[in-house]
């Protein structure tokens, strides 16, 4: 039994047995990454990632099967169908990215969608080791590196800083310099302009360190001369 399974795993010929085994492996690996996303209550969860991995594996199997079954087929390039998977998956990943007031959400999920598609292609090509290592590395990044990212901000808290300007074109570089000098670091920001009223609003998501002084920060920003209102919220 084990010897037969080994032969199936090592086979470079697409047979009903290799199809079943590779789709099963794809189902398992895609589900692993999907579980992590599901546990974090992401819109793209276990079902989405499992389907992406299965679909990519099936596409790769078809891509290999066509030139194998029709050797005289002039366009039987094994990489042709598989190559289009990564192109198509880009649109699906773009749909997972949300832009909200200049801030971007969903980049990690979009990256996971792309990675799990590659995992599916690797399984379809019979590269089980590459697929397994990529899956484990992806889970490590998702589970462990988030803790490392949080440690980088242990000394501070994230807040929303809103700056209302009486001009349409404030000096963003000068504002950034003031923030950094006061131990306030920009995570993301949005920029809105009202040309009719010649006003603008800058909304920053910032990490504020414990040694930051809000009064000094506000005074330094206000000193720019065109600041009408500053608001810092948790």
Description:
- This protein is an alpha+beta fold.
- The protein folds into two domains: 2-151, no CATH class; 156-233, Alpha-Beta Plaits (2-Layer Sandwich).
- The chain has eight helices and six strands, in the order ααααββααβαββαβ.
- The protein has a four-stranded antiparallel β-sheet with strand order 4-5-3-6, covered by helices on one side. Strands 1-2 form a two-stranded antiparallel ribbon.
- α2 (16-39) runs antiparallel to α3, α3 runs antiparallel to α4 and α5 packs antiparallel against α6.
- It is elongated.
Which radius of gyration do the C-alpha atoms yield?
Answer: 25 Å
- The fraction of residues assigned to DSSP E strands is 15-25%
Strand order of the largest sheet: 4-5-3-6
How many distinct helices?
Answer: 8
Structural features:
Alpha-Beta Plaits, elongated, alpha+beta, 2 domains, 4-stranded antiparallel sheet, 8 helices, two-stranded antiparallel ribbon, 234 residues
Q: In brief, what are we looking at here?
A:
It is built from eight helices and six strands, in the order H-H-H-H-E-E-H-H-E-H-E-E-H-E. By secondary structure, the protein is α+β, with helices and mostly antiparallel strands.
């Amino acid at each position: 039994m084990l010897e037969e399974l080994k032969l199936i795993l090592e086979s470079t010929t697409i047979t009903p047995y290799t199809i079943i085994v590779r789709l099963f492996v794809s189902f398992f690996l895609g589900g692993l990454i999907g579980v992590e996303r599901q546990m974090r209550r992401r819109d793209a969860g276990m079902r989405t990632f499992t389907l992406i991995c299965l679909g990519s594996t099936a596409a790769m199997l078809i891509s290999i099967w066509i030139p194998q079954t029709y050797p005289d087929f002039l366009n039987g390039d094994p990489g042709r169908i598989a190559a289009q998977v990564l192109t198509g998956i880009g649109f699906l990943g773009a749909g997972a990215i949300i832009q909200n007031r200049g801030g971007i959400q969903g980049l990690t999920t979009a990256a996971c969608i792309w990675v799990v598609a590659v995992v599916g292609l690797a399984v379809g090509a019979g590269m089980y080791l590459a697929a397994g290592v990529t899956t484990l590395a992806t889970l490590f990044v998702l589970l462990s590196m988030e803790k490392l990212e949080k440690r980088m901000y242990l000394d501070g808290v994230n807040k929303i800083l809103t700056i209302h300007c009486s001009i349409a074109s404030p000096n963003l570089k000068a504002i950034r310099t003031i923030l950094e000098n006061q131990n306030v670091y920009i995570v993301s920001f949005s920029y809105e302009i009202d040309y009719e009223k010649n006003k603008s609003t800058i909304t920053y998501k910032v990490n504020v360190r414990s040694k930051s002084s809000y009064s000094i920060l506000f005074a330094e920003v206000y000193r720019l001369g065109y600041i009408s209102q500053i608001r810092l919220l948790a």
